[in-house]
Each structure stands twice: as C-alpha cells, then as structure tokens.
Amino acid sequence: MSLPKIILASKSPRRQELLKQMDVDFEIVLKEVDESYPEGLTPEEVAVYIARKKAEAYDGTVNNEIVLTADTIVTIDNLILGKPNNEAHAVEMLRVLSGRVHKVVTGVCILHKGNYNLFHDVSEVFFRELTEQEIVNYVSKYKPMDKAGSYGIQEWVGITAIERINGSYTNVVGLPTEKVYQQLKRLQ
Prior knowledge:
By secondary structure, the chain is an alpha/beta fold. It has helices spanning 13-21, 43-56, 87-97, 132-142, 156-160, 169-173, 177-185; strands spanning 6-8, 27-28, 66-76, 79-81, 101-112, 115-127, 162-166.
C-alpha cells in the first residue's frame, strides 16, 4: 500500500507486531490520554469512545499523517474488564473468565485530515475451567497487568485454556487487522 505516514499511538508491542506483519510502515508517537468514559455506554461504545479520545490528542498536530489508535476491552455479563490494578485483581478477573464465554471488543480510530473513521470488532472467546493454581501461576509468571481481562491470547492461557474463538484472532490480540487493512486501503 502507498499511504501517507502512519502514526501508531500505542505502546502495545502486540499492536506494533501486527502492523509489522501487515507490512505497514509506521512510527510510534505516544501521548498520555485519560481513558475514563461516561457511564451508561455499551462495551462497544466504550472501546470506540476511548479510541477516539486517544486520536483527539493528535488532532491539530498532524497534517497529512494517518493516526491509528485502538482500545481493547474484555466484557462478560455486561461487566467491563480493563487492565488489572495489581496481581490480586488479575487473579480475580481470571476467576470470573474461567469456564465461561466472554467477548473481546477492540475500538479503532483512524484519524486523517481531520476525519475520524471509527469502527470496532467483537470476538467471542471460550475459556475452559482453570484451576486456582493455574490462574495464580499464570499471573505470577506472565504479569498480565498491561492486558485487558488479565490475559494475552498469545501467551500460556491462550495456548492452553482457550477452547475456541468466534471472530477475529487478531482482534483478541488487540487490533482487528482485517478491518484496519480495509480502512487503510481506502486512504491510498
């Protein structure tokens, strides 16, 4: 693809790796953004709201560049599981997910020339029942404090505990690459 310069506004190594695998050239530029959101939004609305909020931090500071932002959340029983506060919180989240189906929602914003292209993707993830020891060992070894829902699909839990996924695997990793690629193609 022949695109203007892409700014990835994410410190997520997983998003960076996915873009590299897509053969998309990008530069990482980070800005601190308050990720709070108004009460009453659906999980899909929350993910898109935060992705837009992240992009708004760049509006007015970019010209022809494309700014790509994303936010991934895990949701179960209308409860949003963001990043854990500490190891105890991570263990608690994994107990909630154990043996159940949850959704992973990634909101994406592509900012280009003042236009906000907003979209999201949803994947269903089926977890087998995890033992208390498995949960504690995973959190202790992998330190999933930077991951929504306290797990990474590309780590031990994903390899040993996820029975199946309905939807995009890369969405669960943190970026729905199929949808991002299609949207970037429109900007050529």
